[in-house]
Amino acid sequence: MLPTPIHRFLFPSLDKRFLIRLFLVAIACYLIFGHLLLPLRVQGLSMEPTYHDRSFAFCWRLQYLFSPPERFDVVTVRYSGRTVMLLKRIVALQGDTVEFRKGMLYVNGKLIEEPYVRHRSAWELPPRTVAPGHVYVVGDNRGTPMAQHRFGEVNLNRIVGGVIP
Amino acid sequence: MNNKILLTAILLVVCGAILFLWPSDEKKIRGKFASLAEYSSTEQAEPVLETMKKAAQAAKLCTEPCLIHVESLKIDREFSQKELNERFLMMKKRLPDTEFKFHDIVVDIAGDDRAEVTTTLRIVGTIVDEQITDAYEIDITAEKRDGDWLFSSFTVVEFMKK
Asked: Which of A58, B58, B84, B126 is the most exposed place for a label (fewest CB within 10 A)?
């Protein structure tokens, strides 16, 4: 025989109070996990080794409500909606000049140390300046050829939120 | 009193069901996307005849001609149904175990016989034992011809510039 509180938790009586509680929990879950803290299932290798293929994370949509995205933040970039998103790291902000030399990232002509990058190919990308209202995003896995890796300048309105953990 | 509440609830459910099931142009267009995804997807060890049939069915969902614009591949021209059929066949042979799925379909009906659609195409599958995942945002124009909605243009949105 189960103790009373556990029994009540597992087999609640379907009274009015329980139904109201259930309704409120459902609404709270919908608001939190449907709009504020979006569950993410990572597919692909572009953020290795920070985020592994088939791992889980959350997108915190309020992260940039009061402050703009910062360099090195991991963010989600939306397509036409929020069902499918890209997971990328911001490496440069508007007005910055970005370039890759032999796979090393240079921002405003300075070599950027990237401890989160383990796999590196010899990417070569001439300098380009990030347009106003945009940020420059790249995945952490630079082991793939540059042509096969999706990265670049993206409008701030495409950023859905920050990624936790 | 209780009967009134029950009656109102039943009425609301019935109205909701009618609204949900009522045929509309938007639902027809969404149905075409489901068909396009089904015909574009290729099952593992799919019979050749089935592949050819699906490619032809996918091409028939498009107008004659159909405009395709993919900036990164430098494609910007009209394709005939025959060409589309060949392209679908080629793609299905190249991706022998791949699922196509459209997400976040936003339909904007801009008149009686024209609609602008924005959607995300997600491709998941395996090529030579290697898992592939890819996604594209696509702007699509659909046109109503003889009461049937057909896709008349596809533009891949390239929102990320290297």
From this structure: B126
Q: E strand or H helix at B57, and its extent?
A: helix B48-59
Burial annotation B36-74 (CB, 10 A radius, 16+ → b, else e)? bbebbbbeeeeeeeebeebbbbbbebbbeebbbeeeeee
Lowest mean pLDDT among A2-6, B106-110, B140-144: A2-6
Distance CA(B91)–CA(B116), nearest Å, equals 25
Query: Would an 8 Å CB–CB cutoff place B133 in contact with chain A?
Result: yes
pLDDT at A115: 92
Structure tokens at A56: 């889980």
β-pair type (B148-157, B62-70): parallel
Cα B134–Cα A129–Cα A106 angle in degrees, nearest 5: 80
- Asked if B57 contacts B85 with a C-beta cutoff of 8 angstroms, the reply is no
Of residues A115, A98, A116, the one with CA closest to residue A107: A98
Cβ contact A154–B159 (<8 Å):
yes
Alpha-carbon distance of B135 to B100, in angstroms, equals 10
pTM of the predicted structure, to 2 decimals: 0.84
Q: At A159, which helix (H) or strand (E)?
A: strand A159-164
pLDDT on residue B77: 94
Q: Mind listing the pLDDT tens digit for each residue in B65-81?
A: 999 999 988 999 999 99
CA A17 to chain centre: 38
Query: Across the beta sheet with A74-78, what order do the strands follow?
Result: A37-41, A56-60, A159-164, A74-78, A85-92, A134-138, A152-155
Cβ neighbour number for residue A74 with a 10 Å cutoff: 22
Whether A80 and B136 lie within 8 Å, measured CB to CB: no
Cβ-Cβ pairs closer than 8 A, A with B, add up to 52
Contact residues, chain A, for B160 at CB < 8 Å: 77, 86, 137, 150-154
Edge-to-edge strands, sheet with B114-127? B75-79, B62-70, B148-157, B130-145, B114-127, B97-109
